[in-house]
Fold Tyrosine-protein kinase.
Amino acid sequence: MRTRSFSMGFHSFFRNLHKKRKVRKDRRLNKPQKQQQQQEDQRYQQQQQEQDHHYKQQQQQEDQLNQQQQQMPNLSSDAYNYPYPPFHKPRAVLAVYDFEALQFNECSFIKDDILIVSDTSNEWWQATNVRAKKEGLIPSNYVLSDLSQSIVLGAFFDVDRAEAEYKLLVPGVQFGTYILRPCMETNIPYSLSVRAKGVAVKHFRVYFDEAARQFYLSATMRFSSLEQMFTYYQSNTIDGEVGLMEPRSHRVVVPMDLGECEINYAYLTLEQELGRGNFGAVYKGRIGNMPVAVKKSLSENSDKAFLEEVKVMHILAHQRIVRFLGFCHSEPDRRILIVTEFMANGSLLDYLHKPEGRSLQYSHLISIIDQVVKAMVYLEKIKVVHRDLRAANVLVHEDRSVKVADFGLTLISGVDQTNVADAFPVRWTAPEVLIHRLRPTTKSDVWSFGILMFEVLTYGQTPYKEYTCEQVRELIKRGDRLVSPCQYGHRCDVEVYNIMESCWNRQPEKRPTFREISQKIEGNIRKREGVYCATWENNSEN
């Protein structure tokens, strides 16, 4: 603006100067010369008018451009308005403007694109465009992260097909509930997973016409936005059978009626047996094409214990607890079967003994401990006592994340149970329960958690391996405790062992809470790595 004002002032100065010189010259000119001078003056005035008109047009264009730029977010780092606090967990955001990448490390996107943000520590965020399947830096004030402000963002989960099925089949999810998720196929941006009737989930590809900027499930019906597509299929079926009701909530309300958790046995197929105990057996099974774990009662006497476990599991909803899908009665013997998500890598104890488990770095072992304590913080909050917390009762997902399982002191872990003393978890049990036979509490779970930490950091070594269960009982009674994993040649930071020791205080009330333990573990991770980054976590959704 300053340059334009100076330029116009500059031209005005020379026009005035020209007029003064012209007046002095007019006194010396004859008639023909005067006529010629007048013609030149007219031409000059015409040129000046044209220039002035050009400058006015230019000024109007610049003013319009300035107005448009004021409506758009400012990309200048000098006047940058930082819209969100930094976070380190991957998170989905929605583009509210088009953005064209100008640098090689930037990521282009168009309005309504979904992006997975992995780092917000700088002004420009590191993100992946789900539709375009490209990664780079994006301006953070061009995107929206509030789920409540967008039905599209609220429906999106960064999960694969199997995880979408688990999320849509948990008790409390109704027919027509849907999830929008990334599609693994190169030229297809999204997949739409919808809860169908019975125990079934249907999956649809969401196509995108780049030239027309339109989404569609079938070529006959196209939509300018995903929101428009969702709205249409709320009133119309997709395939003649299923339509859309509402996005799958990130926190499902647990049904109070156990009857809503019962699965028709006809939908369930049992495959290989994975383990067997005195009271039940564990199988790998399927509901449709979805793999599940099935725990089957073996006698009428164990049915009651299984039903109690169902009552506990159906109220649990946390990302670090094995997902309960329902229960059913076998035919024709009417035994109870508990159906949960299938964890491909089996128990944590077995996994730590395998080559892939023994290759885990110290940081990953601490991450496992961190994941387990997050589950226990949740149980502590809702006043549920696990009573049998140990590595054998923690399961490992195919992505190597872990979840707590086996509620209700079950004896179905696939381990040798021929010795009654060894079958009872003496090595993990707090002294008030083991010796004084008091009722287990969250504080006795804290004791067991300290033993589990020892198991993890020693790659599945048996606690007090040099002693029998009866000797362990005597050791605990006289106040002996496990030594640091360092004594067995494994890494264990002093502050981590201090956490373990605090879990083994003889007086339950002096043991830390799981929340306090969680905070200390987070602090240890932050101290070693500079930041606490729970990459396995996604808003603790169920």
User: Anything to note?
Assistant: The two ends are 56 Å apart (CA to CA).
